[in-house]
Amino acid sequence: MEQRLRVRVIDPQSGNETYIFPNPGEYLLDAMIRLGIPIYGECGGRGTCGKCAVKVTEGDLNISLSDKNFFPADKLSQGYRLACRAYPERDCTVILAKEASNAYKAVTENFNDYKDLKDINLISDIKENGYGIAIDLGTTTLVIALIDIKKGSILKKYSAANPQRVYGADVISRIKASDEGKGQALKALVCNGLFHGIETVVKAGQITIKDAEKIVISRNTTMIHLLMGYPCEGLGAFPFTPYKKGFIYTSSDELFDISEKVPVIILPAISVFVGGDITAGLLACGFDTAKKPCLFIDLGTNGEMALGNKDRILVTSASAGPAFEGGNISCGVGSIPGAICHVDISDNRLCYETIDLKLPPIGLCGTGIIELTSQLLKEGIIDKTGLLTDEYFDRGYSIDGISFTQEDIRNVQLAKAAIRAGIEILLRNYGISCEELERVYVAGGFGYNLDINKAADIGLIPRAALGKSVAAGNTALAGAVLASIDPKAKSRLEQIISASEEIHLSDDREFNDLFIEHISF
Asked: Residue 76 phi/psi, 5° resolution?
């Protein structure tokens, strides 16, 4: 009988050891994903992010070209390899990188996302008693809230990394994975993650799943396709057609293979590129009742924006990439324990905060990336073109051994230029100036509040918007909560969608010029 190749995988954080048996020609990363081993695959297995690094301690793995491009010679000699590029040819033992283990933990912060938004407790015509479950199914994170429907209050909350991130940090990587036959694996990952979160909140609330009246889910179009197991071919190529539009109704027994039949309502998208998370956010910010124009900016793994009021809303999506959630940044991580979330540099003195102050820094989350960039600019460590000074050019700027590199800065510039150019296009098409906006909502799943002033310092938002801007937090979850408790939510969402018109930036002749203009700080 032929003996199968065996790889022992050790997680240094948990101490767990798992034996995997890769198929012939199968990448080590794919084999680990198949066995459910937590490992980062942010770039979708292209060998560019370096976050699936493993260290060979017994046996050997051949050195790939991507390994040589990513690791210095001393790391290669110590056994460091990229799991996404490694073909095991003999038995070996590998240790997961520390970052990979931490990447699947997420902070459950105090819920304060309704600050400066419509007070959900003012809804007076709620007639339902019982519990509801609201879900923000994010590209990066899953956030689940147990709700008292009658009181309009959140009883328990759970958050975790979206386990689909093993197939890439962005939706394009996951669409590609689905098109390559991994759609059912992607569905299983997210359904298992959601079910674990639901079980956690109902247990903490001392109820059972069958006690919930409904489950409401908001998320972008790709995440909904992957959750439902829909084919994704129409999402990645012109004319960009979703498999199904509008509200989607299903039940818990169909999604999670359980006996309990709780109704599941998936909120509708405006388009392929402007999903149900944005309609939920516009609901939470009261766009369906606003008389004066407001601006909504969602800084997630893409950059969706909306400008308007109850009568007319322009929406668009900018290809900003996942930089503002730690993606495509060499030292980037999600909003997890140990992530640097606030940075200040004054008189050459560096001060920073991490999420969970007891832990040493492990990387930069979205707010940390924005704040560090603004402080390096203020101190002259980078110039207006984004170039690091000679002292830091080769190795980057270091915070306790965590290097923020020249390439990282370029990725921030590309992301912020796309967002800012998109804002300018919306303003021009709407025919108003920034000064005429009543309110600017900056939303996104950062986990910790964004410093709006530092966002303006790097040119992410116009300075004219500062006095009317608010870091609105997780409006996708806020909208899902509202949709769970407000009997008028369906008609309100339909009004938002009917008032919305999409602007395609790729078709706008001015976008490229504005993008280039705003790359500089």
From this structure: -60, -40
295, 300, 301: which is closest to 315 by C-alpha? 295
- Round to whole Å and give the CA distance between 291 and 214: 32
CA–CA–CA angle 116, 117, 121 (5° rounding): 115
Residue closest to 361 by CA, chosen among 301, 401, 329, 405:
401
pLDDT digits (tens, 9 = 90+) for 171-197: 888 999 999 999 999 999 999 999 999
- Report yes or no: 189 and 174 within 8 Å, Cβ to Cβ: no
Taking the C-alpha atoms of residue 409 and residue 405, their distance in angstroms, rounded to an integer, is 6
Q: Give the ranges where 344-474 is alpha helix by DSSP (H).
A: 366-378, 390-393, 406-430, 452-457
What CA–CA distance (Å, rounded) separates 277 from 298?
Answer: 9
Residues of the chain with pLDDT under 70: 1-3, 98-129, 301, 321, 445-449
Residue 166 phi/psi, 5° resolution?
A: -65, -20
3-state secondary structure 35-70: CCCCCCCCCCCCCCCCCCEEEEEECCCCCCHHHHHH
Closest CA to 237 of 185, 176, 289: 176
Greatest alpha-carbon span in the chain: 76
